[in-house]
Amino acid sequence: MDHKNLRHIIDKIEVPKEDVFRAIEMGIQQGEQKNRRNSYPRKKFIVSCAIAASFMGLIFSSGFINPKMNQVLAMTPIIGAIYEQFGDKMGLDLARQNLITELDQSVTKNGVTVKLNNAYFDGGIVSITGHVSGELEKGINEEGELSIDVNFENGKADHDLWLHGKSTQFKETEKGFEFQWKLNYPYETIKEDFTLPIAIHYINGIKGDWNFDIPITQAEHKTLAINHSRDYQEEGVQININDIKIANASSVLNLETVSKYEDDKIDIKKAVDDKGNILFQYVNNTILSQTKEKNGFHVSAHKTISKINEHVQSITFYPTISIFELPVQQLLNISTFLLESERTALAIKVNSVTAEGNKIIVDYNFEGFPNNLNNHRADLVLHNLSCAFNLIDNDFMGEIDPENPMPPENHSISKNEVRLLDKKTYHYQSVFRLDGEEQIENFALENTVLQFNFTSFIEIKELAPFTVELSK
Fold it and tell me: Using an 8 Å Cβ cutoff, are 395 and 426 in contact?
């Protein structure tokens, strides 16, 4: 049989790439278990590797390598050197399916080279990996640190939609840093193919223009139409589950919330399918739009969640609500008063307000907490009290911007030292220093407003779970 016919026969062989990748991944994990090594197994491993190397060398030198096997083997550096080191299970899964885009784009500016290696797009997640090398010691960062000032799709500074929820991982190498960006796709309509412009402005403080145009591709996904709505009239909340897009290694849950109150945060903390699998737990939303309509404040968002098995027939969702309140206040022309939360049973009962030298001491009881507040919650209350108060000069209250309610500089004090006097009755004292970093010019107790914000003390409320049936 000649080489041509033999190659034709080999090309027809189906390669079990799932098994190959699984074996590679297991090999990587076993290689990290250094504590289990001893002399005999190590010798045996070396001999085995030598045999395997000889076998592979024989195959390659003979020219009879199966192209499908070649594709599988070509992916192993990606698994070992990039996604495995960053603990990216989605990347590993997509690599097994040959759904990683190789980039191989490199730009050098001011002695620093940025090379973008690979990218993937699955569901609502875009990942880009790369390497930074060169004269990084000329930057301002400490040794072993990497900072990259970057924008995507011609976005400007923090207004760049792609930066919302962006995460960066990096690992130092002999010649620089390997890094991975993970980005939340910021638009409602998910494209299958697009080009993502990337502009890097600074690397470790070194200025330059490292510009790239990255092709992003996602294989076709399936959409499950749901259109399920659940009302919570007591809280003034409505949750709409619109659809779920099933990609190759994940899914995207599209939802809309409607609330009577603009700044309340309605979310879904967990979802469980009818097989008992947790599809997600505490996954952040990617906010797509926020509008005010007749029936309330609408927020459209999506979540990237686990891939939904084709045999799943229903999903149960567990929603929550975080209540927001505006601060309440009292002019300190009186020393005993009550500050009450508008939407909860919480209240601050002020027993006295006294001036002692350069200190203002507010003595109070925090009412509305349960009697069995655990230690962690009690510590959290103590911590939050140190930044929940404001002393503000009454003459400058009108200068506070409602859209950005920062206390007026040199006319307000927010920092205070909290003392717990009685844990059982939630009895506290807050001490404000008039001669500290924050000051009130021409301070007069009777012309000062005490402001308090209850928001950080209101626990997240769990709403009743609901179940939706999936369309076939």
Answer: no
List own/partner pairs for 236-242 with CB under 8 A and 24 or more apart.
236/260, 236/261, 236/296, 237/264, 237/266, 237/321, 237/463, 238/295, 238/296, 239/266, 239/268, 239/317, 239/319, 239/466, 241/317, 241/468
Which residues neighbour 346 within 8 Å (Cβ) at sequence distance 6 or greater? Answer: 340, 366, 367, 368, 369, 454, 457, 458
Distance CA 239, CA 472 (A): 22
Cα separation of 178 and 130, whole Å? Answer: 6
Q: What is the dihedral of CA 301, 305, 310, 313, to 10 degrees?
A: -70
CATH 2.60.40.1630 range(s) for the chain read: 89-217
Would you say 129 and 149 are in contact if contact means Cβ atoms under 8 Å apart?
Answer: no
Question: pLDDT in tens for each of the 472 residues of the chain?
Answer: 443 343 344 344 444 444 444 444 444 444 434 333 333 333 333 333 333 333 333 333 333 334 444 444 444 454 445 898 899 999 999 988 889 999 999 999 999 999 999 999 999 999 999 999 999 999 998 889 999 999 999 988 888 999 998 999 999 999 999 999 999 999 988 888 899 999 999 999 999 999 999 999 988 788 999 999 999 999 999 999 999 999 999 999 999 999 999 999 999 999 999 999 999 999 999 999 999 999 999 999 999 999 999 899 999 999 999 999 999 999 999 999 999 999 999 999 999 999 998 999 999 999 998 877 888 888 999 999 999 999 999 998 888 877 777 888 888 998 999 999 999 899 999 999 999 889 898 899 999 999 999 999 999 999 999 999 997 6
Q: CATH fold of 89-217, please?
A: Immunoglobulin-like (2.60.40)
Residues 6+ apart with CB under 8 A from 443: 393, 434
Range list for CATH 2.60.40.1640 in the chain: 222-324+461-469
Beta strand 314-322 pairing with 101-109: unpaired
Which is it for strands 125-134 and 466-469: parallel, antiparallel or unpaired?
unpaired
C-alpha to C-alpha distance for 340 and 338, rounded to whole angstroms? 6
Q: Which phi and psi angles does 93 have, rounded to 5°? A: -65, -45
Sheet with 448-452, edge to edge strand ranges: 328-331, 448-452, 389-393, 412-413
Rounded CA-CA distance 242/240 in Å is 6
Residue 377 tokens read as: 């919650």
Q: pTM score, two decimals?
A: 0.77
Neighbouring residues of 76: CB distance < 8 A, sequence distance ≥ 6? 24
In whole angstroms, give the CA distance from residue 192 to residue 169.
26
* CATH architecture type of domain 222-324+461-469: Sandwich (2.60)
Q: How far is CA 377 from the centre of its chain?
A: 24
Name the DSSP letter for residue 411: B
